[in-house]
């Protein structure tokens, strides 16, 4: 399968433009991805398509190798990131991953949690808050996967929208932690 993909990528036809990154790696679309397999396939594809390997090829083949290498890098980055991978799964199932409304109780909890971050007086408190946040992210990813596997894409997207808030909260915790380091 990889050899077939390799030949297709380097043919004189335009480079791949697939937005389904699972196809780029010939992987089954799933949230619970085998990251070791992804890494092995990525390395094999990069060995085959790295632009340096095609330095003596025609200008067109060099251009295709460069574009394909960039696509392989972009696909790898997305598939390694659970949030990006989850969004991709929804998109390839023709479901808009952008939820327009949010559970008001969740939003209220997030406001309270963010207040706790801002009022955190020491790095120990921030570490505890960060762990709570990471645990919540893990639970939501598990719920996303369950709903996705049950083909309940609306509920899966709702879980993913909550993850987005928690990822932003992770960034706030990290920034607050940097402020403590500067003191």
Explain briefly what this protein structure is.
This protein has 183 residues and is mainly alpha-helical. 73% of the residues lie in helices and 0% in strands.
Topology:
Blueprint: H1 2-10, H2 21-24, H3 35-49, H4 59-80, H5 82-92, H6 104-119, H7 123-149, H8 153-182
Largest sheet: none
| Strand count | 0
Over the alpha carbons, how many angstroms does the gyration radius reach? 21 Å
Order of helices and strands: HHHHHHHH
Strand percentage lies at under 5%
How many separate helices? 8
Poorly predicted ranges: none
> Any idea what the shape is?
globular
Helix content: over 70%
Q: By helix and strand content, what is the structural category?
A: mainly alpha
Distance between the termini: 55 Å
> What's the overall average pLDDT, rounded?
86
Report on the architecture of this protein.
It is a single chain. This protein is mostly helical. The protein is built from eight helices and no strands. Helix 1 packs parallel to helix 3, helix 5 packs parallel to helix 7 and helix 7 packs antiparallel against helix 8. It is globular and about 60 Å long.
What keyword list fits this structure?
183 residues; mainly alpha; 8 helices
């Amino acid at each position: 399968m990889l050899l077939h993909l390799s030949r297709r990528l380097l043919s004189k036809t335009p480079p791949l433009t697939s937005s389904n990154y699972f196809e780029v790696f010939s992987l089954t679309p799933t949230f619970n991805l085998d990251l070791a397999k992804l890494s092995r396939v990525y390395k094999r594809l990069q060995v085959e398509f790295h632009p340096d390997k095609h330095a003596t090829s025609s200008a067109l083949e060099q251009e295709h190798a460069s574009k394909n290498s960039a696509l392989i890098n972009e696909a790898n980055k997305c598939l390694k990131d659970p949030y990006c991978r989850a969004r991709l799964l929804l998109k390839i199932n023709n479901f808009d991953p952008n939820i327009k409304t949010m559970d008001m109780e969740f939003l209220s909890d997030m406001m309270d949690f963010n207040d706790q971050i801002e009022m955190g007086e020491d790095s120990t408190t921030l570490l505890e808050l960060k762990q709570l946040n990471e645990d919540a992210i893990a639970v939501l990813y598990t719920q996303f996967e369950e709903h996705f596997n049950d083909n309940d894409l609306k509920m899966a997207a709702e879980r993913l929208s909550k993850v987005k808030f928690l990822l932003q909260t992770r960034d706030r915790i990290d920034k607050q932690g940097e402020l403590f380091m500067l003191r």
